[in-house]
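Re: that backbone. Tokens:
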């Protein structure tokens, strides 16, 4: 998934087809590295409260979370041609 910054036309690849695997393996650390701090904290808290069950569910929402984060920051998604 690629996004383009509307202010300076910088294009960045923000996720790959295996991003869900990184969320599964590293959990909240993945979100922190990506700079999506809200989900890093929420993932960590939910994993503790649910005794790890949330850690098994969170990877299914990886692409939706990343897309929403960048769109909220004002970036535009670059569609594949």
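Recovered sequence:
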């Amino acid at each position: 998934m690629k996004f383009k910054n509307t202010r300076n036309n910088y294009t960045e690849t923000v996720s790959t087809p295996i991003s869900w695997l990184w969320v599964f393996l590293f959990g909240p650390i993945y979100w922190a590295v990506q700079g999506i701090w809200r989900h890093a904290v929420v993932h960590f808290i939910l994993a503790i409260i649910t005794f790890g069950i949330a850690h098994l569910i969170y990877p299914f929402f990886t692409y939706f979370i990343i897309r929403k984060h960048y769109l909220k920051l004002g970036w535009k998604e670059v569609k594949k041609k």
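Helices lie at 19-26, 28-34, 37-49, 53-57, 62-72. Strands lie at 2-5, 11-13, 75-78.
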